[in-house]
Amino acid sequence: MKRFGLEGKTLLYTRERAPGGTGSLQFAGSTSAEAEAVLQRADVLLNFHYAIDPRLLASVRRTALVDIDPGLLQYWMSTGQLVVQPHDYYLTTGETVGTPGARFSDCGLPWIHIRPPICLDLWPFTYIPQAEAFTTISTWLTTDFLKVRENGKTVLRENTKRVAFLPFLDLPSHTHQPLELALYLTEQDSEDRVRLDEHGWRVRHSRDTAGSPEAYRSYIQQSRGEFSCAKASCIDFQNAWISDRTVCYLASGKPAIVQHTGPSTYLPNGEGLFRFTTVEEAAAAIESVNTHYERHCRAAREIAETYFNAEQIVARLLDETLGSKIPDQYRPAPARGESGTPGMTDRRDNDS
Asked: What span, in angstroms and rounded, lies between the C-alpha atoms of 179 and 298?
């Protein structure tokens, strides 16, 4: 935290359980009065923790919910699986949230669209033509199950990277390109690990490759590119999802080959970024990248600079939540074939 100027600027709290009540809040390293004073001075609270204690929200003059699970969050809210306290603003990284094409409810809220931001200075272009493996970093088998209704019954559907990757288990036999997965594995995953090995995947533990922010960045920047699959919910909801991890690959100049998660007004497909639906499409994308590697590396970086520049995205976010004006150079690039600032909802238009 010190490296980023945040030493001594963190509030950590726990909530004591109390029968029939909300329980008191206990802050680590500060008193409740000190914490409340910090919150009262804040211009806006960006809430990435959907179930944050409502007393914290009440202490801040402006609140903005930041949806980083597009489709899932709205599904949880609309089915009563998650209660989200009212906020002043609702931001989402989901391109289809609140649009006519969405396959899920907008929960009656005016969603403001943002994109996953990345600090380009911290993720410089790193061209290594001899880099060998396409990689990704991921969980594997988690407790991520989606509660859904099927045939009149409530069932739990597995929503993990495990079920996402298994349909593409044979991909190594369709290419000479080394493919490596840095996964968080436990003893329960030993059989899956054997299956991956037998099908030609390289497997490493994510603890060894991403044990720190520096190691995480180094692993990505030493990779040839990214190959990754998306969770089933992204496919089902068609939310045009792109992960912040993939954006890190792109910013580093690493071409990304990722599973197609629905139509997008701005995400390219075929230059620096490839979106596949089948094993054959994934293999063809790998071949295309390797045939014109430098071109796709530079295209990947250009995608990050054009669509995911943190200076542009955060400026827009603050403009929406604080009402400040942003310089033209910080305005995000428009989507293909459109003018203005597509992919971003103007709250003032929604209120008119």
From this structure: 21
